[in-house]
Amino acid sequence: MSKYKLVLLRHGEGAWNKENRFCSWVDQKLSADGVKEAQDCGRLLKEQGYRFDIVFTSILSRSIQTAWLVLEAMGQEWVPVVKSWRLNERHYGALIGLNRAEMALQHGEEKVKLWRRSFDVTPPPIDESHPYYLEIYNDRRYTTCDVPKENLPRAESLKEVLERLLPYWNSTVVPEIKEGKTVLVSAHGNSCRALLKHLEGVSDEDIANVTLPTGIPVLLELDENLRPVKPRQLLGDQAKIQAAIKKVEDQGKAKPST
Ligand SMILES: O=C(O)[C@@H](COP(=O)(O)O)OP(=O)(O)O
Hints:
By secondary structure, the chain is an alpha/beta fold. It has one domain: 3-Layer(aba) Sandwich (Rossmann fold), CATH 3.40.50.1240. Helix content is 40%, strand content 10%. The chain has 9 helices and 6 strands, in the order E-H-H-E-H-E-H-H-H-H-E-H-E-E-H. The protein has a 6-stranded mixed β-sheet. The structure holds (2R)-2,3-diphosphoglyceric acid. (2R)-2,3-diphosphoglyceric acid binds at residues 10, 14, 17, 22-24, 89, 92, 116, 188-190, 248. Keywords: Glycolysis, Isomerase. One of its GO terms (molecular function) is phosphoglycerate mutase activity.
């Protein structure tokens, strides 16, 4: 029987999602469509009677802004929002800022799929010559982390995302769930995939076929050991959700940029 309900959410569309660029640790705001997605998500959750007790976000604006918009649409602005870099998007290393479709033209769609969806392939690391290196590592938010700035990642596989996320999950999020709180995690495509892999026990191979669309809440019903009692449910219009998943998958198809 289900004891706990947990909602995972990939933020609404960000400016670079629209431009099909790897965004990762670059701090982009939501696009106008992304704002609407987050508000629609909040309205849906309100209609379905959700009452959150605590929200966890990354320290990237798009996940925080999404959490605010969801809570506002639900009339639950007072709910505490707790932020950690450990929920940040996967660090895409040297790929940050690059266009996925152009990368697929240059390196092949298979390679881009490996970079995006495989469990243990780490993309090439970012270095100081990268155009976004200073913007990321000189950002004051990264002086507030529980590891020194020099030890923050320079690129990550999904496996490495899970390794940095799990200690936080176990020490900070799990106790709240076990206290009976209804938790919303407003994070990113790959930090949510890492959590799904962990909670659902998805195999290293099968996780490559899991893609999350922006702004769609994912409901997990868990037993007392935090094991799912039924398959995850993506809430909302199922035809629209399938189309949105395909759109994200197709971002990795080879196409010259216009
Ligand atoms: O870093 C990014 O650009 C996307 C994920 O990209 P893909 O793994 O889908 O290529 O992350 P998010 O929009 O969830 O923050």
